[in-house]
Amino acid sequence: MAMVACPECKNEVSDKAxxxxxxxxxxxxxxxxxxxxxxxxxxxxFNIIMIYSMYSGMDAATDKMQGMHGAxxxxxxxxxxxxxxxxxxxxxxxxxxxxxxxxxxxxKEK
Length: 110
Fold this sequence. Notes:
Blueprint: E1 3-5, E2 12-14, H1 34-65, H2 71-104
Helix pairs in contact: 1-2
């Protein structure tokens, strides 16, 4: 462990320190590990997939309703609502699970 001079207060600080203990200036940033990056990008990809699924599902449902009348439209609207609700539940549950994984694998400053 080598000692380096703090760029702000010029006191001796360990080269492994994240902050200067004297003036609290940030010396270096903590980095995510492999699993931290994996969960972070998985969380982002999951949300992109869910946005696309919701958009394409609603788009397909409204396209099919154009040729329907009366009870058919009502049934299609109810089915679309139930499908959107179920997709929303999956989205929220996935975000909670992946969000906690991202939270627990964030970089820690020692």
